[in-house]
Amino acid sequence: RSLAVRRATTLASVIGIGLVVFVLAGALMLSAGIQQTLGKSGKSDIAIVLRKGSDAEMASSIEQPTLALILAAPGVKRDASGSPLGIGELLVVATLDKVGVDGVSNVQIRGVPENVTQFRAGVQIVDGRAARPGTDEVIIGQRLRGRFKGLDLGQSFELRKNRQAQVVGVFSHEGSSHESEIWADIDSMRQVFGRSG
To answer: Do 119 and 87 touch, CB atoms closer than 8 A?
Structure first.
């Protein structure tokens, strides 16, 4: 009877509790989604080497001679022929126009060597083909497809001023965060973004 008498207070309490539950559930879903996506990007047998003082890939840079020393270090896994299993990559951010809305957003572009699919197990080309080394061809993660102008199979976009990149393939990587990246030839990326050596 008291609930019926105090309708306004009861309704406010129910709505307040409902909002708290909704916000908590939303935060837990967001946290689980981030852990699932970023967790799939890492593997227990793969290490990322960063420059001293860097806390992320974007803030780190290691020169080519140092990369050779790292790969020659003891503890680096080797293939059947005795060659070290490791690659150097280049990570930059480009600003691209969104599709369907006004505005731009940052997209990560990863410069990778030709053998990246051998090193990163689980990468599969789901449409098109792999990019040829030494060209301005790129492959895009399937989560980027169609979300930005020029990011679909057969389309092109501007890497830097007056430098177009052609999308020749779409890849998946077990639902990891790499599916939200553009992969290009590392040597071309070094030239385009002035990161030689």
So the answer is: yes
